[in-house]
Design brief:
The complex is a heterodimer of chains A (183) and B (506).
Chain A: H1 3-11, H2 15-36, H3 40-57, H4 67-86, E1 101-104, H5 110-118, H6 122-133, H7 138-145, H8 149-179
Chain B: E1 2-5, H1 6-13, H2 25-68, E2 80-83, E3 88-90, E4 131-132, E5 138-145, E6 153-160, E7 167-168, E8 173-181, E9 184-193, H3 200-206, H4 215-224, E10 246-248, E11 253-255, E12 284-297, E13 313-315, E14 318-328, E15 333-354, E16 357-358, E17 363-364, E18 370-372, E19 388-411, E20 415-436, E21 441-445, E22 453-466, E23 471-482, E24 493-505
Parallel strand pairs in B: 2-5
Antiparallel strand pairs in B: 2-3, 4-7, 5-6, 8-9, 10-11, 12-14, 12-24, 13-15, 14-15, 15-18, 15-19, 16-17, 19-20, 20-21, 20-22, 22-23, 23-24
The chains are: A mainly alpha (183), B mainly beta (506).
Chain lengths: 183, 506
Amino acid sequence: MELDEIIKKCQKQEPKAQEIIYKLYGSKLFAICLKYSSSHADAQDHFQDGFLHLFNKINQFQFKGSFEGWAKRLMTNHVLQQYRKTSHLEIVKEIADVPEIVEIEEEIELNELLKYIQELPTQYRLVFNLYVLDSYSHKEISEMLGISEGTSKSNLSRAKKILKDKIEMRNSLDKTDKKYNFQ
Amino acid sequence: MNQNNLEKYFQEKFKDFEPDFPKESWQNISNQIKSKKTKKNYIWYKFSGLIAMLFLGFFTFNSLKDINKIPDKNEIENSVVIDENNKTLNSTKNNKENDTNISKNNKTNPTDLNNLNIIKEENKSRKESFTRIQKNNINTNVLINSNKTNNLKLIKIDSFSKNSNANINKNNDDLIANNSISNKKSIIKIDYVENKLESNNQIEKTFNSNEEINSSSLKDTTKNNNLSFNTTISDNIYNEKLKNEINIDTSNVVIKTFKIELASNIDSSKVLNLKERNVVKNRWEISTLVAPIFINSIKNNSTISNNLNENDKKYYQSLSYGAYIQYQFTSKIGVRLGVSHINSLQETNNVAFTTEVDLKNNIFKQNSIHFLNTNSKDNQELFSRKVNEGTIKQEINFIEIPLELNYSLIDKKIKINVLGGASLLILNGDNSYLKTNQNQFINLGNASNINSINYSLNFGFGASYPIFSQMRFHLQPSVRYHINTFSENNNNPYYLGIFSGLSFKF
């Protein structure tokens, strides 16, 4: 069965087609939830709600672009919406310069990097994901999060600084481990 | 040691990130889809039911109002004469011969009359609210007399006909008589004919079954049976309580509704009543309204932070202004659509907060503000930073698009009406700032919990007074209950406004 056909069946709310879509795109969409959420448990909740949202909105897909892109955007917006609700006031812009270069002593596991991202303050995490990992511009981010471009830039700088600090902290711990042979 | 660009490093790492996803979640999703479907249907049924109830209620109210009304004998009319030259309606009581023409013959000669229109006839049995009288024959004529052209227009409402199953129409039947008077398009529209007959016997008594009824015999019969059969046409038909509103224009003559009732003085419901109602002259009306707005909310929670729920809060009096356009469907019912600007300003006092201080300039840093619950603010030792106090002001602006139903209660010189409907509110900017007790202003930016589109339910009363013929002054106290202003809390405000302004009919 071709993808278009499956989507059309989803639009008619056929459960089997919905399950196929779930299995096809589950992994990619769960990746979004993990990156944007503050914990694995939150990510699971957002993933479930996000898929419900996707099936509710699937009639709006008009077969013009890729379905994957559409579904990812929808899921991203859904997770953003969950976090936008929790903070009533945005942080006003304040830009800090952060050096872009970071020294990596040893390759870091993906799960560890994910943990670093998840530990970021909510708005920093959202901006970092949108800008660095999903290539949105600051203008787009400002519209998506309802903040100013300046705030978006400031949040990104702060997020990068926190991540850099964490990586450097890890480096120093690694050095200590090596020095004292705590391997 | 590798030197990496932080952004590129993360991008590389997460390029093909496809984690294991919780497959067991599918069952939950599937179940929720099913329950949502049922829920959706349920909501639809509820909504349809509500609409149906509103309609039923409205029409029941209207019909009850008509049924309960005891007809006045003076309302009995059987002839209407319209003088085209004067563009007025002449009224003659007690069968003035010149103005009233009740055919002496049972058969009306169509050659003597132009544009004789009988629009609707309907058979109805008496007990089932359908009355059929075969033996009686009454011709009620509405005559339009044009002096210049001698072009007579006759509208015949054939209530009873001996051989041709003449009928009395008990329900809302439309009689439309189109007339062209002196080459001008004149329309007489009879929308509503209602006959009430309760006793076939009495009607048979009243009208001799085989007799032709002429004006005198009709009069006699009326007398003998204590039936008052008046011919009533009045110049100032609007002002008299005759239920006739006949609008004559040089190009249009509109008689919207006639009501015919047959009644005796023993039972007032057996009166033949020809009634006209619901005349709408100018259907469109534009108005500009301005109102002081008093805002409050039932819960009085903070819209900024839950920690501020206990704080003392007050709304400032605000102003709303806008323009409206109304379309009058009938003399009683109109719908209006508008656009207006409305804003709210809320003040939260005694706000306790902690924040970083820029020691260089000795100012508070805006991005590290943390609001404290009023109950905990006195415990300074709980916080690593100094607890400060101040006042928050939050201003929210909306563009409002109201759609309201306007129902007229009193339609005289001073009109009283009731308004109900809903508004679409579009967020048109907001801003919050904190004024500390040290007189520092900290801009808190925009609130992210205000829905950009939200709604309100509107209800109010209106009174209007004419200034000129087409211009009226309006006073409309109304209340607007906002439904989903905020995305997170249910702190829905309500706005009380006293709108006043001018309207122009066209």
